[in-house]
C-alpha cells in the first residue's frame, strides 16, 4: 500500500476524470478494481445538459472535445450514481467537482463529505476550458486557485486534489498557490485548448487530449515537481507503461489514464502488467 | 449488463465485392453470440479514434462486415490479408428491435443509403423469424455501388433501387423513391428500418413524421469511447441528449430531434 494525497491506494494508476463516467460501462469488460483509484466525471451543483453537438473531433494524434461538463447534478449523482459506485468499487473513488463560485465548491464538498465510506477524495476541476464562466477559468489565476482550494479544504475532511490547466504562462506559480492553500495534491494536466475543423468546415474549439499532449504534461509535472513539495498525479497522453515511467521520472507519484483508453480499451490491463 | 470484448483475432477473408466496397470476415465466438442486427464493433486501424463498423451478418462464429473505402483508415483496412491480426472491440450499441408483437400486422420497409445496407442486410436475414419479408429500398450514387442482395430476394424481399445518376432504378434519392411509393401505394401498415448517411436520414425523418409512419433509424456519428462514457457523440432527443454509440445507434423515429 502507498498513499497519495493521504488516500491509501494499492498501486499508482488511476482513471482520469471524464473518461469512464462513473465506471459502470467499463466494468462490462475490465476490472476497474485492479486500479489504484478512480476519478468520476465532473459533477456540478445543478444538472448540466452539456454543449450542443458536435462535441468531438479527431486530430492527428488525439482529439478535441467540447462536452460542456454534461452531468446529472449533485442530487441525482448522490441518489442514482452513488449506490452503484458503492456496489462496484472496492478501490478509492475520487469525485471530480466543478463550480462557478466558491459557494458551489463548498456546498458540493459538504454534501459529498457525508459519504466517507464511498468517497475518499475530491478533485477540483479548476481548469475545464469548455464552459463559459463569468470569470475566467479558476486555474488560470493564482489568487482564484488559492481561494477555491482554501474553501475546499475548509468545507470538509476529504483530501483535495487540484487539477490544473496547462493553458497558463507559469504553471509553477499556480501550483504554488494550490500548495499554499493546503491542497493535498495536484493533477497535471487538464486538456490543452485547441481548435480543429470538422469535415463540414465547422470550427470546434475545446480541450485537446491524447498522445499529442504528453510532452506538455511531462513539462508541467517537471516544473511543478521542481518548485513545490506537492504530490503530483501525472495525466496527459499516457498510452503505455513506458509513458507511466516517464511521468514518474519527472516527479509524478501517481498517474491517470485519459482518452487513450478509448483507442485501447485494454490499456489499464497492459499498464498494470507493465507491458512496455 | 451485456458483456463487451476487446480481442485480437485473425482476418479470415477481406476482399472487394464491388469497386471500393469490401467484405471483411473475422471470427470471434463470444462476440458472435452477443451480436444482433444494428449493433456494431470498432476496429483499431491507424488513427486515434477506433473506426465503427456495423455488422452485415454472422455465420456460426464468423462475423461479416461490409465497408466502403472512404479515408486513410478504411484504405489501410482494405490491405489486410488473411491471418492479419484485427483489433476488435464489441459488440457495442443497441440494435434494431423486431419482435413479433412489434411487427404484428406491419409490413417491414427497409430503406438503405450506401453502406447503410450492411446492418439492414443482417436485419433482413433475421427478421423473417418474426414477420413476412417486406420491401427494401436501396439508394446509392451509381449502379456500380449496388451490392447484390440475391439471398434476400430468395427469401421473398422485394427490392427497389434508386441511383443519384439514374443508372439503375429510380433516378434520384432513395428518400424520394420512398415518398413516391408511400403516396402511390399507401403506407398505413409500413414499419420503417433505415440506415444511411445523416442527410438522407434527416429527410426520411421528415417524411415519416409527416405521414405518421413509425420505425427505427440507425445513425452514423464520429465516436470516441464507443460505450457512452465520454458523451461525445450525442444526438438530441425528446428525452434529452442520448449517445449514438451506447443509447443508439438505433433510435425510434419519433424519439429524435434532428
In terms of DSSP E residues, the strand content of chain B is: 35-45%
Distance between the termini of chain A: 23 Å
Order of the strands making up the biggest sheet of chain B: 10-9-8-7-11-12-15
The biggest beta sheet of chain B, please? 7 strands, mixed
Globally, the shape of chain B reads globular
Helix content of chain A: 25-40%
What's the pLDDT, averaged over the residues of chain B? 96
- Oligomer status: heterodimer
Structural class of chain A: alpha/beta
Task: Assess the beta-strand content of chain A as a share of residues.
Answer: 15-25%
Q: Average pLDDT value of chain A?
A: 95
Helix-strand topology string of chain B: EEHEEEHEHEHEHEEHEHEEEE
Number of strands of chain A: 14
Helix content of chain B: 10-25%
Order of helices and strands of chain A: EEEEEEHEHEHEHEEEHEHEHH
Supply the number of helical segments of chain B: 7
Main sheet: strands, sense, barrel of chain A: 8 strands, parallel, barrel
Characterize this entry briefly.
The complex is a heterodimer of chains A (276) and B (258). With 276 residues, chain A is α/β, with parallel strands linked by helices.
Amino acid at each position: 500500500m502507498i498513499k497519495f494525497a493521504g488516500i491509501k491506494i494499492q498501486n499508482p494508476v488511476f482513471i482520469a476524470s471524464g473518461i469512464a463516467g462513473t465506471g459502470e460501462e467499463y466494468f462490462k469488460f475490465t476490472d476497474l478494481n485492479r486500479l489504484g483509484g478512480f476519478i468520476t466525471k465532473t459533477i456540478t451543483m445543478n444538472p448540466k445538459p452539456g454543449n450542443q453537438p458536435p462535441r468531438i473531433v479527431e486530430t492527428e494524434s488525439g482529439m478535441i472535445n467540447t462536452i460542456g461538463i454534461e452531468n446529472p447534478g449533485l442530487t441525482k449523482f448522490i441518489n442514482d450514481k452513488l449506490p452503484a459506485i458503492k456496489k462496484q468499487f472496492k478501490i478509492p473513488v475520487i469525485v471530480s467537482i466543478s463550480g462557478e463560485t466558491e459557494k458551489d465548491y463548498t456546498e458540493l464538498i459538504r454534501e459529498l463529505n457525508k459519504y466517507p465510506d464511498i468517497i475518499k477524495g475530491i478533485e477540483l476541476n479548476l481548469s475545464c476550458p469548455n464552459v463559459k464562466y463569468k470569470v475566467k477559468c479558476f486555474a488560470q489565476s493564482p489568487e482564484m486557485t488559492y481561494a477555491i482550494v482554501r474553501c475546499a479544504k475548509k468545507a470538509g475532511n476529504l483530501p483535495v486534489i487540484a487539477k490544473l490547466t496547462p493553458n497558463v504562462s507559469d504553471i509553477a506559480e499556480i501550483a504554488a498557490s494550490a500548495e499554499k492553500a493546503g491542497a493535498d495534491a495536484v493533477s497535471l494536466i487538464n486538456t490543452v485548448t485547441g481548435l480543429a475543423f470538422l469535415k463540414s468546415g465547422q470550427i470546434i474549439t475545446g480541450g485537446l487530449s491524447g498522445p499529442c499532449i504528453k510532452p506538455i504534461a511531462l513539462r508541467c509535472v517537471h516544473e511543478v515537481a521542481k518548485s513545490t513539495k506537492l504530490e503530483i498525479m501525472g495525466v496527459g497522453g499516457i498510452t503505455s507503461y513506458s509513458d507511466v515511467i516517464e511521468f514518474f521520472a519527472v516527479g509524478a507519484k501517481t498517474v491517470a489514464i485519459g482518452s487513450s483508453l478509448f483507442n485501447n480499451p485494454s490499456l489499464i490491463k497492459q499498464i498494470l502488467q507493465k507491458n512496455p | 449488463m451485456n458483456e463487451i470484448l476487446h480481442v485480437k483475432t485473425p482476418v479470415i477473408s477481406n476482399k472487394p465485392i464491388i469497386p471500393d466496397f469490401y467484405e471483411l470476415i473475422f471470427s470471434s465466438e463470444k462476440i458472435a453470440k452477443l451480436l444482433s442486427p444494428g449493433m456494431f464493433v470498432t476496429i483499431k486501424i491507424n488513427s486515434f479514434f477506433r473506426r465503427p463498423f456495423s455488422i452485415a451478418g454472422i455465420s456460426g462464429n464468423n462475423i461479416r462486415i461490409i465497408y466502403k473505402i472512404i479515408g486513410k483508415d478504411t484504405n489501410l483496412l482494405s490491405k489486410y490479408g488473411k491471418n492479419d491480426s484485427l483489433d476488435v472491440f464489441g459488440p457495442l450499441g443497441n440494435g434494431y428491435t423486431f419482435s413479433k408483437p412489434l411487427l404484428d400486422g406491419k409490413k417491414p420497409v427497409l430503406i438503405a443509403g450506401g453502406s447503410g445496407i450492411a446492418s439492414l442486410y443482417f436485419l433482413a436475414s433475421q427478421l423473417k423469424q418474426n414477420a413476412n419479408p417486406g420491401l427494401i429500398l436501396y439508394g446509392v450514387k451509381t449502379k456500380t455501388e449496388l451490392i447484390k442482395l440475391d439471398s434476400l430476394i430468395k427469401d421473398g424481399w422485394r427490392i427497389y433501387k434508386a441511383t443519384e445518376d439514374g443508372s439503375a432504378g429510380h433516378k434520384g434519392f432513395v428518400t424520394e423513391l420512398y415518398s413516391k411509393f408511400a403516396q402511390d401505394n399507401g403506407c398505413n401498415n409500413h414499419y420503417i428500418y433505415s440506415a444511411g448517411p445523416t442527410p438522407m436520414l434527416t429527410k426520411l425523418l421528415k417524411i415519416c413524421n409527416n405521414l405518421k409512419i413509425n420505425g427505427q433509424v440507425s445513425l452514423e456519428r464520429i465516436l470516441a469511447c464507443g460505450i457512452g462514457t465520454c458523451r461525445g457523440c450525442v444526438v438530441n432527443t425528446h428525452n434529452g441528449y442520448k449517445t449514438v454509440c451506447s443509447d443508439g445507434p438505433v433510435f425510434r423515429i419519433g424519439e429524435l430531434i434532428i
